[in-house]
Write a structure and sequence with these properties.
The chain has one domain (4-74). The chain has 77 residues and is mostly helical. It is globular, with a radius of gyration of 12 Å. The protein starts with a helix and ends with a helix. It has helices spanning 4-15, 21-33, 35-45, 52-58, 61-74. It is 74% helix and 0% strand. The chain binds zinc ion (ZN).
């Protein structure tokens, strides 16, 4: 079972369409048991860049550290 930190790394690849099949299976397993991560994916997909700081503020504390790094990588433009 992956932790949320592991899942965030996989989610990044997943959202960029670069996730390997074996990792996708592991991620889907995690998402099946972790509502906050599911909510993150759903919300992230429909969140404009300008709103991502607000999204970040709503995340559970145990995800926020990984998420900050994730969002920094993901929002370079
Ligand atoms: Zn999770």
């Amino acid at each position: 079972m992956h932790t949320c930190k592991d899942a965030i790394e996989l989610l990044r690849a997943y959202l960029e369409g670069e996730l390997e099949v074996k990792d996708k299976t592991a991620l889907e397993e995690h998402l099946g048991a972790c509502a906050p991560c599911v909510e993150f994916v759903e919300t992230y997909r429909r969140t404009p860049d300008l709103c991502k700081k607000a999204l970040e503020a709503k995340m559970p504390a145990d995800l926020s550290g990984s998420l900050k790094a994730f969002l920094r990588k993901h929002t370079v433009s």
